[in-house]
Specification:
single chain, mainly alpha, Rossmann fold
Length: 140
């Protein structure tokens, strides 16, 4: 198991040396092409969904230390699956997804609209069951 001493050279280098973090965005041809947007949108139906679950578990563990009403920002949200999962499963009051690709944002918006419609339908179904249960009477 690693100890603090194993990380000491890295910590010192970060504190003393200059740092530069570069982000090279994916080419627009990759993230804006309709076929690629479709493939990104199907990630939750692939083995990648396990990685989403692991990421959510990590956020969930940290989330326990955050006050209610917290907000989350999902940078490079793509089709918004992770963004929707943060809102649905971890209870963030407000979740914002951002992406440089307009087609990705469009699909994320469609996915969010679809999820809201599903949630409304689930709520209507719960209300129907509740009413049905309350109208049942038993007599002797």
């Amino acid at each position: 198991m690693a100890t603090f001493l194993d990380f000491l050279p890295m910590v010192l280098a970060q504190q003393i040396g200059s740092q530069r973090l570069e982000r090279i965005p994916e080419p627009r041809a990759l993230t804006d092409a309709a076929e690629n947007v479709l493939h990104y949108n199907q990630a939750m139906m692939s083995k990648l969904s396990l990685l989403y679950a692991i990421g959510l578990e990590i956020v969930h563990r940290v989330r326990g230390q955050i006050d209610d009403g917290a907000c989350a920002l999902d940078l490079a949200c793509g089709p918004g699956h992770y963004t929707l999962s943060l809102a649905k499963h971890l209870g963030y009051e407000k979740v914002i997804g951002m992406d440089l690709s307009a087609p990705m944002v469009e699909v994320a918006t469609q996915n969010a609209t679809r999820e809201r419609e599903r949630e409304r339908e689930r709520e209507r179904e719960r209300e129907r069951r509740k009413r049905k249960k309350s109208t049942l009477s038993w007599g002797m």
